[in-house]
From TrEMBL:
Signal peptide: none
Protein name (database record): Predicted membrane protein
Bilayer-crossing regions: 44-66, 72-92, 101-121, 127-144, 176-200, 212-230, 236-255, 262-280, 286-308
Key words of the record: Membrane, Transmembrane, Transmembrane helix
InterPro entries in the cross-refs: DUF2157
Domain annotation DUF2157: ranges: 39-151
Length: 316
């Protein structure tokens, strides 16, 4: 039997004579976090915070003492830390969550090691191939751990690699082309994380993770279309417009199906930005700017009211 949630209790309360005493008891037993849950949360929170401080402390240590350190010391310290953390992951009996947090820190240290190597041997510490190598080296860790924060770092590295490649190698790529690729990659990843868990019967990723991916995808699509509106004609603009409109249609259907107001809100606000950019492209005189302002105020108000009404309807 599925665990009862807050919405279930609210629905039962509205359609029954359930006493307030029993409701409070049910909320305490099934909804509210007890001392044990808070203890577990704080334990993981401070563990992640401590490992993050240690990781960034190592980064700032190298940044501050760069000139005084021998190149063997620079590389040796990071490699030693990577070996140490790997041994802890393999042979210790710590919890899986702790191991995943340590693996995330190790993945960041891989990037630090590549950056230090690039600085010492002048291969470039901000070149796209550094981020490409970083992405490839931690791919197996990401897949095996299936840890959402590590996946988020991995996807960020993919996007960074593509952006730097466009800036440093593919000079002939237009901005619309780059944003089309970014939108496509992030959308495919989002669809994979939504669809695959059901197909392979695995737990769904946390909501914050899919929300961040959806926000990234919508942001790239919005920026790409706005850039295409104000730039010269680009054949990729038509493709991007088709992909974005198709995804938005699917996104609205999916959001209504699972009763998710976040997807509806980001799609709606993206459409408002795109329409405003199109109107500004038609004319930039004071009258049009005034009309765009009124349009934004009216459309945002309508979107918020609609979302509030939907949320009330879904919780009945």
């Amino acid at each position: 039997m599925a665990k009862i949630n807050r919405e279930d209790i609210q629905i039962i309360n509205r359609h029954s004579n359930w006493s307030q005493k029993n409701i409070a008891k049910t909320l305490k037993e099934n909804i509210y976090n007890n001392a044990s849950a808070w203890h577990q949360f704080l334990k993981l929170f401070f563990l992640a915070l401590g490992i993050s401080f240690i990781t960034f402390g190592i980064i700032f240590f190298f940044a501050y003492n760069w000139e005084e350190l021998h190149k063997f010391t620079k590389i040796g310290l990071i490699e030693g830390l990577l070996v140490l953390v790997t041994l802890i992951l393999l042979f210790s009996k710590i919890s899986l969550v702790t191991k995943n947090i340590l693996l995330t820190a190790s993945s960041i240290l891989v990037g630090v090691l590549l950056a230090v190597f690039g600085q010492i041997y002048q291969t470039g510490a901000n070149a796209y191939d550094l981020f490409l190598g970083w992405t490839l080296l931690i791919t197996l860790w990401v897949i095996v751990s299936n840890f959402s924060p590590l996946w988020l770092i991995y996807i960020t590295l993919i996007n960074t690699t593509l952006i730097l490649y466009a800036q440093q190698v593919a000079y002939n790529w237009s901005g619309v082309t780059v944003f089309t690729l970014l939108f496509t990659i992030n959308t495919l990843l989002l669809l994979s994380f939504i669809a695959l868990p059901a197909l392979i019967k695995k737990p769904n990723p946390p909501g914050w993770f899919t929300n961040v991916l959806a926000l990234a995808s919508v942001s790239f699509g919005t920026i790409g279309i706005v850039s295409g509106i104000f730039e010269n004609y680009d054949p990729f603009f038509v493709l991007l417009l088709f992909l974005v409109l198709s995804l938005y249609a699917v996104g609205v259907w999916y959001a209504l199906r699972i009763k998710n107001s976040f997807y509806l809100s980001i799609i709606s606000f993206s459409c408002i930005v795109i329409v405003s950019a199109f109107l500004l492209k038609i004319s930039e005189d004071a009258g049009m700017v005034f009309f765009i302002g009124l349009f934004i105020i009216a459309s945002v108000t309508l979107v918020i009211k609609t979302l509030i009404d939907l949320q009330k309807k879904w919780t009945k």
